[in-house]
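For this section, I looked closely at the sequence of one protein beside the tokens encoding its backbone, which the following lines show:
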Amino acid sequence: MFIKNKRYKMWAQMVLPPALLALGGCSDSGLYLLKPEGLMSRTFYHYFILDVVIMLLIVIPTTLLTIWAMWRYRKGGKGSYHPTWSHSNAIEAIVWGIPLVTVGILSYLSVKAIYDVNPYNPGVIAKAQKADGGDPVEVDVIATDWRWLFIYPQQHIASVNQLVVPVGTPVKFRLTSTSVVNDFLIPQLVGMIDVMPGMRTKQALVADKAGTYIGFSADYSGAGLSWMHFQTKAGRGRDSSYPLPPAQIRTSGITAYGSYLRS
């Protein structure tokens, strides 16, 4: 190695191999949040990137200035000593002005994001529905132990652990649970929403392109949590023309939950 100091060399030999071994297990196949394929997920990703960039604009200069100050004012450095110094308007303006401007920008983006991705009435979905010109697809979602039940009230069919949606058409969900709390999440299409017994929550999405996406429960709900995965298939077309799942369950047997969700 190029490290001559024996102490640093020992630490490098201890830290680097485990770190490289850990990095060897990394894969981009599970980075669903960084690969948005839906209108809601793209909106989430957009605001996430904005937040990161704004914070980096603070963190990076602050880090560089800290290193510069430590180097300049070290013993033997070129920094000058002013024993009578007590105040600087420029420093006060920087110390208070930049945080205030940053908080103002982040507050504006936060409020805008709340209206854009509010699961009960997402602004981006409303715009997409207006542009689409048709009625949204309605899906009732019931979390059971330990499966996901998807009911299509407009088509009078239901499926287990398989959700099919049309590309480019708003899909609106009504969600509840038969027993414990779960979280409904399709990372590449839409963010997380709680699914609770005795309550009805809402969510919506628009798929950008055809494909198969992974959905799952994001909340620990018991021994069968690891089974609560489902496939989300986005197909071309709308209404009856997109490939609906086979009628695995007749909706006549689940009218109690269906009527509750639509009430």
Q: What stands out?
A: The chain has a mean pLDDT of 82. The chain is about 40% helix and 25% strand. The first helix runs from residue 6 to 24.
